[in-house]
C-alpha cells in the first residue's frame, strides 16, 4: 500500500493500530530522520495523550515546573537555609533539575517506548528506533517550559547570556541527549526480552538525582572526600552535564560570575564535557547496532 507523506501524518494512533500487519522496514537513525513526518506524528500524539481530558492542557507544562521551582526555593533556601554561603542556591538547584529531568524522561520513556507501542510496531513498516527517538523529542518538548521558568528569575537577578555560558549549556544538553538516547535504545530492546530492565532503568534514574551536584555544590564533594574521590565523581557524565548548565545559567546570576565559577566549578570543565560527549556518541552508535541486531525478534516477543 502506497501513501503520501501527508496521509499517515493525519491518521490517529487508533487508525494506525487498525492497519494490517506490515513487513519490516529499513532500520537506522538515518531512516528515522527520513521518516520524520511519522516521527512528528508520534511526538504530537504522545504530547496530546499526556494532557488529554485536562482543562488547562499544555499550560500544565509551565505551571508544574513553576510550582516546583517555588517549592524548592522555599524549602531549601528559606526554610532550611541550604546553600548558605552560595548565592542564588535555588537557581543552582533548579538548573540541575532541568537537565536531570531531560535525561530521566529520555531514558525512562525510551526504555518503555517499544512495549508501549507494541500495536504500532506490528502494523507499521517503520524503523523501530523511531520510538525511543520520539520519546527523547517529547522529553525535550517538556524541558522547554522548565527552561523558560529558569530563565525568568535568572534575568530578574541580572543574568545575561554570554557566549561561553551558552556554549556550556548547549554542550550539556547535547551530552544529555546523546547519553539518554543511547541508553534508551539499549534498554528499550532489552525491556522487550526481560521486563525487569524497565525497573532497572527506573532505579538507575533515582540515583541520578543524588549523584550530581544539584542539591549540593560540587565543592562539598571535594571538601568532604578530597581530590581522588572528586575526580572519580566527575567521571559521571550527568554530573558533568549539570555543571555545564550551571555554568550557563547559575554563575551568571551571582555578583561575581568568574569568582563563582573558579570556586564552585572544577577545572577543565569544557574539555571533560567534549570528551564525555564524544564517548556518548560512540555509545549511541554501539547501542544502535545492538538494537539493529535484536529488533527483528521484537515483534514476536511483544
From TrEMBL:
Residues covered by the ABC transmembrane type-2 domain: 56-294
Cited InterPro entries: ABC2_TM, ABC2_TM_bact-type
UniProt keyword annotations, A-Z: Cell inner membrane, Cell membrane, Membrane, Transmembrane, Transmembrane helix, Transport
A Pfam family the protein falls into: ABC2_membrane
Membrane topology reported for the UniProt record: Multi-pass membrane protein
Family membership: Belongs to the ABC-2 integral membrane protein family.
Protein name per its UniProtKB record: Transport permease protein
